[in-house]
Design a protein that fits this description.
Layout (H helix, E strand, L loop, with lengths): L1 E3 L3 H18 L11 E3 L2 H10 L4 E4 L1 H11 L2 E6 L6 E2 L1 E6 L14 E4 L5 H13 L4 E3 L12 E5 L3 H9 L5 E5 H6 L2 H5 L1 E6 L3 E2 L1 E5 L5 H12 L5 H9 L6 E2 L5 H19 L1
Parallel strand pairs: 1-2, 7-9, 7-10, 8-9
Antiparallel strand pairs: 3-13, 4-13, 4-14, 5-12, 6-10, 6-11
């Protein structure tokens, strides 16, 4: 199994217990050992999944979709990372701002997190595009913005996004609901939410194309049953406080169809 991380060593202690659990509980599917791998980027994950070097991949939806498209892998479950099944993004402005709705952001500069982020880029971009707005990336905060577009720059971190809004560097920013909850009460009191995106799966579990259908079913049963055993619960807690794995409420096919539509909308705009 694999995740994507720029510091591979940092994730091994939390990831290997899940691999060990699967290795101990999948003998009937012909799997007797589990090994964790941390990939440096999504291209590497796609290569590993295509070749069968890696069979399971955990990530948020925005990196996961191109991996699935390139490798033929499929989503099979949700992962309740940090104890939650789904999350979304808020558009925030200063509490003393005159801006009350997204339409008032035309001709203004906002900040997003980074181009690889699901909650800090894909979610807010898709929301703006579906609402008929024209978000355009800018190189600098003070760059000119046309009246019919919403300019955006990247902050690099959700916490910095909030800081830039509070400092008046930009008129609005997009931060995920988990970051919002982690802000101090003082900071939240100085911000106002003017819009929020739809909710998306917190993380998805993706199965590789070389797995047989019976192996995928065995993996799903093993993962969804982890919270029912001591070994499983211990591995879940180590794995970024994962509460459990479960089925997509609307079914995997319906969930991925909507995610693919959103992804295509965003990529078409960026191209």
């Amino acid at each position: 199994l694999t995740e994507v991380e720029f510091d591979p060593a940092s994730l091994m202690p939390e990831t290997q217990p899940v691999a060990d659990y699967l290795g101990d509980n999948l003998a009937r599917a012909g799997i007797s050992t589990g090994e964790a791998n941390i990939a440096p980027d999504v291209d590497t994950v796609a290569e590993w999944m295509t070749s069968g070097e890696v069979n399971l991949y955990f990530d948020s939806v925005y990196p996961a979709i191109p991996v699935m498209n390139r490798s033929g892998a499929i989503p099979i479950l949700r992962r309740w990372k940090d104890g939650v099944p789904e999350y979304n993004t808020f558009f925030v402005v200063r509490a003393d701002s005159d801006i009350e709705q997204l339409s008032e952001l035309n001709g203004q500069m906002i900040t997003l997190q980074e181009p690889s982020s699901s909650s800090g880029f894909m979610f807010p971009m898709v929301h703006l595009l579906k609402a008929g707005f024209n978000p355009q990336e800018k190189a600098e905060i003070n760059e000119a913005i046309a009246a019919d577009e919403i300019g955006y720059v990247f902050s690099g971190q959700a916490e910095i996004t909030a800081a830039w809004v509070l400092e008046g560097k930009v008129v609005a920013g997009a931060i995920d609901n988990e970051t919002w909850d982690e802000l101090s009460e003082s900071r939240r009191s100085q911000l106002t939410i003017i819009a929020e995106t739809a909710a998306f799966p917190r993380h998805v579990v993706v199965a590789g194309p070389t797995l047989a259908s019976e192996q995928i079913e065995a993996l799903k049963q093993a993962l969804t049953g982890m919270d029912e055993s001591r070994q499983g619960r211990k591995a879940l807690e180590a794995f970024s406080e994962t509460a459990q794995f479960d089925e997509f409420p609307s079914g995997a096919e319906a969930a991925i169809t909507q995610l693919e539509r959103d992804y295509t909308l965003l990529q078409t705009h960026l191209d």
